[in-house]
Write a structure and sequence with these properties.
Blueprint lengths: L1 H36 L15 E5 L7 E5 L6 E6 L6 H7 L1 H7 E6 L3 E2 L6 E2 L4 H14 L9 E6 L1 H12 L4 E7 L15 E7 L5 H12 L4 E6 L11 H14 L3
Helix pairs in contact: 3-7, 4-5
Length: 255
């Protein structure tokens, strides 16, 4: 009997290391499973852009440019050009929330001062104006490749917007022309994805309607929209609503 007991003791002793090995292996596998099931660390939250607002962007040797900041903002790029002896800040602020729904709005100040004070007009240097626009968007971190930009021009600014679109068709593809001093011409604007002609209810409207007919004859998606209760240079009592409707039309009717 004693030899049998001794043999059993040896058998148990010889099995213990394997059991310990299997237990260690199971523990290791469990550790791997727990590690793989652990949640990925969340990336750091993006900084809060703050509320929608218009601020002044100062660039060396340039007139000021007023830029839309805060969020949320859409992906589009928009430019507003004021009229003769005008000021871009008030215009940009008048429809900043409607603009933000589409993207980032900039409003460069004209490069020709009008007597005393902050108001100014535009020179005929279209190349310089295009460089300013590109420089501003890049200063805002919006990339080196700029295209599909919306131009919004009022009065003299409308003529400059038309010239920019004609000179740089690969960059400026949508146009809102407000109260231009002459009818916009379709010549050189066949690339436009959409265009909208606008004039105040109490302003001269025939020129913009003539421009509408010219662009339509060239196959460009175009319409005319009145600014309620507005005289020349004004945005009317509800600029957010008015420009929101204008931008909605421009983007939904684009080809």
């Amino acid at each position: 009997m004693r030899p049998l007991i001794a043999a059993l003791i040896l058998l148990v002793a010889s099995c213990e290391p394997s059991a310990r090995g299997r237990s260690a292996a199971r523990t290791s596998e469990l550790s791997v499973e727990i590690a793989s099931a652990a949640p990925e660390p969340e990336p750091p939250a993006a900084p809060d852009p703050g509320p929608i607002r218009v601020e002044t962007l100062e660039l060396p040797s340039e007139p000021p440019t007023f830029v839309l900041r805060g969020g949320p903002r859409g992906p589009a790029l928009l430019v507003f050009l004021h009229g003769m002896c005008g000021h871009g800040l008030g215009y940009a602020q008048s429809f900043q929330f409607s603009a933000a729904k589409k993207g980032t709005l900039i409003a460069p100040q004209g490069d020709l001062r009008c007597a005393q004070g902050p108001r100014s007009s535009w020179s005929g240097d279209i190349e310089k104006l295009d460089r300013r626009i590109s420089k501003t968007f890049r200063a805002l971190g919006l990339g080196e490749s700029l295209g599909d930009i919306v131009l919004i021009g009022y009065s003299q600014g409308a003529t400059r917007a038309e010239q920019l679109a004609r000179r740089y068709p690969e960059r400026y593809t949508r146009l809102i022309s407000i109260g231009a001093p002459r009818p916009p011409s379709a010549k050189g604007l066949g690339h436009l994805r959409a265009a909208l002609m606008m004039a105040g209810e109490r302003d001269r409207q025939d020129l913009m309607k003539k421009g509408e007919r010219s662009l339509r004859a060239a196959g460009i998606p175009v319409s005319f929209q009145e600014i309620p209760e507005a005289t020349h240079g004004a945005m009317g009592p509800t600029p957010e609503k008015t420009m929101g409707q204008a931008l909605d039309w421009l983007f939904t009717r684009s080809r």
